[in-house]
Write a structure and sequence with these properties.
By secondary structure, the chain is an alpha+beta fold. Among the domains are: about 190 residues, no CATH class; about 150 residues, no CATH class. About 45% of the residues lie in helices and about 15% in strands. It has 22 helices and 15 strands. The protein has an 8-stranded mixed beta sheet, with helices on both faces. A 3-stranded antiparallel beta sheet has the order 3-14-15. Strands 1-2 form a two-stranded antiparallel ribbon. A hairpin with a 2-residue loop joins strand 9 and strand 10. Helix 4 packs parallel to helix 22 and helix 5 crosses helix 6. The protein is elongated and about 140 Å long.
């Protein structure tokens, strides 16, 4: 109770007054007799006025009929009747439909629901477990941490395959997937600091980890290694890099010159375009400078496989061959097939030695006309540091390439003519009034054009003293260029290859280019935001393992009749989700969302693919004894999802 004063004496007086008042009201007589009726005794306290109803109304000027009060009572009665009618209708509806529907019952029993993304994660997870990626990484990089490095690397690889994200966003992605339940580890454990520590831990053992995983993939899938493609690509980086041996400016096709980059040399087997070896390089490394080291790397790789290097052929583009490399292939007894840049005069003469009409008698494909290929054999000499060797060459005339070159040249010639017409239209204006000035402007246009060597322009004065400009085509240089259109030179040291086989093998080399496109477009290796060479090497390993799983799944699916790329398979299964329902009693239910017929057919094929890959190939001399066990999914039983 709040008092107006803090004095204890005043508080005691107030309480005494209230006690006396309460005692008076409680002890007053209860009954009094008025006339013939017994009514309650009314107190006659001083200052209190009472009213006797027998004397009439207390306020006689008020009306005797209370219309508002009567209307209010009628309104309340109507509301009670309306509520009663609603309840009767509800009870009737419940009597007809039942007390509770199943949906209402489930809603009453459900505490919460969580929807987690499933997609192709079960397939990719099972594939990586079949390849024992997690076990191999943990064997090479052991740790006492709560989350082992193999599990962290597994999550990074799955993220690369399904939804490539920066390192700092991986934990958020993981929390929305079923991997949280399968791994039994909170998503918060996979923060960017832990991912960075894992990259630092696996970097010293990148080579050993890659060799063990690839060895298992090649054994389990029985990949043929008789034909290997090699190419070099560049990945763009962002940020500051000090004292880096990889990150620098350099030239690379389809990458901007003003961006830092590092390069990666990639070998893939023609059988399914499976990655077999890779090596990081500095961004300013020339393609030719990587070939000899790649030869040694392939030699060691094939030696571990127990395969003689003489039985393997390496196919590369024009950046993989010159005089020095031709002798290196001979010294290492490696069979090769590659294009050759005709930088030397003797090699350029080979391209133009045969007239175009003679090619038509030597078709290399069944196509004719502008889509056909023709070729004539020749011998290609190489000389380096006093040594020489002669290899087999094939001058190829490509109909599609010839058509493309001539169309492009014609378009550039039209652009040059338009530029010269603009110069002619400006004659008479300032800086275009003399023959010398007009001639200078015309020559500038010729120099700036890539086809300027095929045209000539001349400024002169006519008989009226007016400055004129004329131009014409140099037909002989243009004819010489047209003779080279569509021609290129293939070289091999295998004299048993037929011309058709040489062309067919060389055209298959786009398998490595497709894998490079997958790494950049689907796995999004580039751009890279890491700032240490060690983490660049480790992240490159993660991406190469993802590319290996991508290629292996695509190869096995095609062998089982599913003509789809891995990216298409992942896209088709993207809508698959899992719904977790938690009840009030602590129990829960995990259900898969409905799947359509196409998804069911894809999953059926993928189940067969995984079952075949899990077939043991042991005892196998190329697999360590510790790995001779069957890989199965081993999450806790309560989290298993059966498709």
């Amino acid at each position: 109770m709040y008092f107006a004063t803090k004095s204890r004496r005043m508080q005691i007086l107030v309480w005494l007054i209230w006690a006396i008042a309460c005692l008076v009201f409680w002890t007053w007589p209860a009954q009094a007799v008025v006339g013939d009726r017994s009514v309650p005794d009314l107190p006659t306290l001083p200052g209190i006025v009472t009213h006797d109803p027998g004397n009439g109304p207390l306020f006689p000027w008020h009306p005797r009929h209370r219309w508002r009060k009567w209307a209010w009572r009628r309104y309340c009665a109507w509301r009670r009747a309306h509520r009663r009618a609603l309840w009767i209708a509800r009870l009737a509806r419940l009597a007809l439909t039942g007390a509770l529907t199943l949906a209402q019952l489930v809603d009453l029993l459900t505490h919460s629901q969580v929807r987690r993304h499933l997609g192709a994660l079960p397939v990719l997870y099972a594939l990586l477990e079949t390849l024992q990626v997690r076990d191999i990484i943990n064997r090479h990089c052991s740790t006492r941490a709560q989350v082992d490095h193999g599990t962290v690397a597994l999550v990074l690889i799955l993220n690369r395959l399904t939804m490539p994200l920066p390192v700092y966003q991986v934990a958020d992605w993981l929390g929305r997937t079923v991997l949280v339940n399968v791994l039994g580890i909170p998503a918060a454990k996979f923060n960017d600091d832990r991912l960075g520590r894992t990259l630092d831990a696996i970097q010293p053992r990148c080579r050993e980890i890659w060799q063990d995983v690839v060895q298992r993939a090649l054994v389990q899938a029985e990949v043929d290694l008789h034909l290997i493609f090699y190419d070099l690509t560049a990945y763009i980086l962002h940020g500051d890099y000090t004292d880096s041996q990889y990150v620098t400016f350099g030239f690379a096709h389809n990458t901007p010159m003003n961006k830092r980059k590092f390069k990666n040399g990639l070998n893939v087997a023609a059988d399914g375009n499976i990655p077999t070896e890779y090596a990081p390089w500095s961004g300013n490394t020339a393609d030719l400078a990587t070939v000899q080291q790649n030869m040694e790397q392939l030699r060691r790789f094939l030696a571990r496989r127990g395969k003689p290097i003489e039985e393997v052929m390496v196919v590369g583009d024009r950046a993989n061959l010159n005089d020095e490399l031709a002798l290196a292939y001979k010294d290492r007894k490696i069979r090769y097939l590659a294009g050759l840049k005709t930088q030397k005069k003797v090699h350029r003469e080979l391209l133009l030695a045969v007239p175009e009409k003679q090619f038509y008698a030597h078709p290399l494909t069944d196509d004719q006309g502008s889509q056909g290929y023709w070729g004539i054999l020749c011998q290609v000499p190489f000389e380096h540091e006093g040594r020489s060797v002669v290899h087999r060459g094939l001058v190829v005339l490509s109909g599609p390439m010839r058509t493309a070159h001539r169309r492009a040249r014609a378009a550039r010639l039209r652009e040059l003519r338009e530029a010269l017409r603009e110069v002619e239209a400006k004659i008479g204006r300032p800086h275009y009034r003399t023959v010398k000035a007009v001639q200078k402007r015309a020559e500038t246009q010729l120099k700036q054009s890539s086809v300027g060597k095929f045209m000539q322009a001349k400024a002169y004065e006519d008989e009226n003293g007016q400055v004129r400009l004329c131009w014409w085509v140099n037909r002989y240089p243009l004819w010489q260029a047209m003779q080279r259109d569509g021609r290129y030179l293939l070289v091999t040291n295998d004299w048993n290859l037929s011309p058709r086989k040489m062309l067919a093998l060389y055209r298959q080399k786009d398998g490595v280019e497709k894998r490079i496109q997958v790494s950049k477009r689907d796995l999004k290796v580039s751009p890279v935001y890491l700032h240490k060479d060690e983490r660049i090497e480790a992240m490159l390993l993660i991406n190469m393992l993802a590319l290996l799983a991508y290629s292996l799944l695509e190869r096995q699916a095609r062998q089982h009749g599913l003509q789809m790329t891995t990216r298409r398979i992942i896209a088709k299964l993207q809508s698959l989700d899992v719904v977790e329902t938690f009840c009030w009693d602590g129990s829960y239910l995990i259900r898969l969302v409905p799947i359509d017929e196409e998804q069911a057919a894809i999953l059926q094929v993928l189940v067969q693919v995984l079952a075949e890959l899990r077939l043991p190939r042991w005892p196998h001399p190329l697999l360590p004894p510790a790995e001779t066990r069957l890989c199965t999914l081993s999450p806790p039983a309560r989290h298993q999802i059966v498709m």
